[in-house]
Amino acid sequence: MLNLNFLNSISEFLTALLAILFAISIHEFGHAYVAHLNGDDTAKNSGRMTINPFHHIDPFGMLMMFLVRFGWAKPVPVNPNNYKNQKLGNITVSLAGIFFNLVSAIIFAMIYSRVDMYSLKSVAYSLVVYNIAFASFNILPFPPLDGWSFISTFLPRNIVYKVYEYSRYTFILFILLIVTRAYVYILTPIYAFFSQIVGFFM
Predict the structure, then answer these.
(1) How many Cα atoms within 13 Å fall on the side-chain side of residue 175?
(2) Which of 23, 26, 28, 55 is catalytic?
(3) Among residues 102, 46, 103, which one has the least CA distance to residue 76?
């Protein structure tokens, strides 16, 4: 008798791949689009104001999304000097990716709660999970993540520059968090908080 169980694994992989690519794309598009609204077209001129995932993928960051459900994409280039209001621009652009992920999660949560077809529910659920996960990771206050970009708006420039000098070591910090599984204790409360927000709309 032909065993088709492997198709379940393929289906789960493709569903996760779709959700990851969407979460990455909508997040980076959010940064680029809000930067554009603030007067900076650096990302737009670099071809990053798009939902085409191939313009945003960081291979290792995407691999981490598969392995631990938390990861990152290539940062969108912005030039704060072009913002109409630099402080407002920094705040809104920093939070734009997280906002777009959470709005997407809310939309797919509403779809999940209103459809009966198993395949659609499975895709919608995966899109909810990965959008919340991407938002949760990016709100961490480490450069070059969005949480740091937001916080740095309110810090003295000399502190910001000093932190950026050591930002090349952030990648090592991410690896340590993953290897030691310390990321679970850091990200689980954030994920739970965002999940509660999304859950209000289900």
Answers:
(1) 6
(2) 28
(3) 46
Per-residue pLDDT of 90-138, as tens digits, reads 999 999 999 999 999 999 999 999 999 988 999 999 999 999 999 999 9
Q: Is 143 left (phi over 0), alpha (psi -120 to 50) or beta?
A: beta
- For tokens 């994920």, the residue is 191
pLDDT digits (tens, 9 = 90+) for 157-184: 888 888 888 777 777 888 888 778 888 8
C-alpha count within 13 angstroms, C-beta hemisphere, residue 157: 1
43 in Cβ contact with 76 (< 8 Å): yes
Tell me the pTM: 0.90
66-94: pLDDT as tens digits: 777 777 788 899 999 999 999 999 999 99
Distance of alpha carbon 197 from alpha carbon 63, whole angstroms? 27
Look up 165 and say whether it is catalytic: no
105 burial via Cβ count (<10 Å: 0-12, 13-18, 19+): buried
Q: Is 121 exposed, middle or buried (0-12, 13-18, 19+ CB in 10 A)?
A: middle
